[in-house]
């Protein structure tokens, strides 16, 4: 029995050794085949590499002679791929927003502050440094009312007959008659706009607030011109200066002229509430000297520590709204009023012309106002006579 098992084992051993030797021979043959295939592959790779290098060299030569423009779809796909993690988080609700910038070049005109290529990284200031604004506007001197229609009509006393008098016993009392006239003040639009690229609004900090404040200032300057000098022919308002009463004082010293204008106004029972002069004339008043070159502002002129000036108790306002060498003394609270429909508005809109396709924004400022001048005699307009 043992011999039979031993004989069977030897037979199995012989078969296994034969199989191992056969496998070695087969593996050696396969290995040689693999080596041959690898050498052939290396040769092919070398050929492909040479071709790739040739193509890259050709592409580099092309790039040197022309600008490479990447299409929008390709750029969008690349941006999505580069931001896939952020977009995935957005889809899973792990973050509330996701955004990325598409680095594309627009075809057509360039706009300021965009399309900056080859530039160093920059940091913008946190505000836009605007030009200085006018310090006093006419709107700050006049009362303001509301207007719902395009025409403001007001009645005013244009004359009359008779006066009350002492009555003689048994005789008729004195009769008084007032002439009332209706006068119209048409509401007119004062407006303007600026068109700006959306990129500038997005890229420059505080650009929106800058546009709001600067357009408002531009509007107020135009409004000042209408309030003071409008000729009354549509679309212009009737301004104050064309209908104001001329100064009649004979003084030649600036401060004295203003004092006389105050007296002239109050002789007609108005109350002076403000004097308007140009900053140049304000400086001339402050530099008043006598023949000995000593500063000699009269006692009626008071200068406070903050630089505010009053003459005979009436505040002096300096503003570039009025021309050099001119002055207005007025009862500003009674003589006229600004009537406005909804006030001054500054609006941003992309729905103007071809803004939508050009990525532009139109910013408009406007107001519709009327200027009823209730009392033309409430304003005294004069010339200092310092400029020929």
Explain this structure.
- The protein has helices at 2-65, 72-82, 84-92, 198-203, 207-229, 254-267, 279-286, 332-335, 355-358; strands at residues 144-146, 151-161, 177-186, 188-197, 245-246, 274-277, 301-303, 309-311, 314-318, 326-330, 338-349, 360-370, 379-383.
- It is an alpha+beta fold.
- It has a domain at 138-164 and 176-383: Major capsid protein gp5 fold.
- The strands form three sheets. It has a seven-stranded mixed sheet. Strands 1-11-12-4 form a four-stranded mixed sheet.
- A hairpin with a 2-residue loop joins strand 8 (309-311) and strand 9.
- The chain is elongated and about 175 Å long.
Task: Give a concise summary.
The protein is of the alpha+beta class and 388 residues long.
Number of strands: 13
Strand order of the largest sheet: 5-13-10-6-9-8-7
Structural class call reads alpha+beta
The CATH homologous superfamily name of the domain at 138-164 and 176-383 equals: Major capsid protein gp5
**Helical residue percent band:** 25-40%
Q: In percent terms, what proportion of residues is strand? A: 15-25%
Name of the level-1 CATH class of the domain at 138-164 and 176-383: Alpha Beta
How far apart the termini lie comes to 149 Å
Identify the overall geometry. Answer: elongated
Largest sheet: 7 strands, mixed
| CATH fold label of the domain at 138-164 and 176-383 | Major capsid protein gp5 fold
SSE pattern, N- to C-terminal: HHHEEEEHHEHEHEEEEHEHEE
Q: How much is the average pLDDT?
A: 79
Give start-end ranges of low-pLDDT stretches: 60-76, 95-117
Total count of helical runs of at least 4 residues = 9
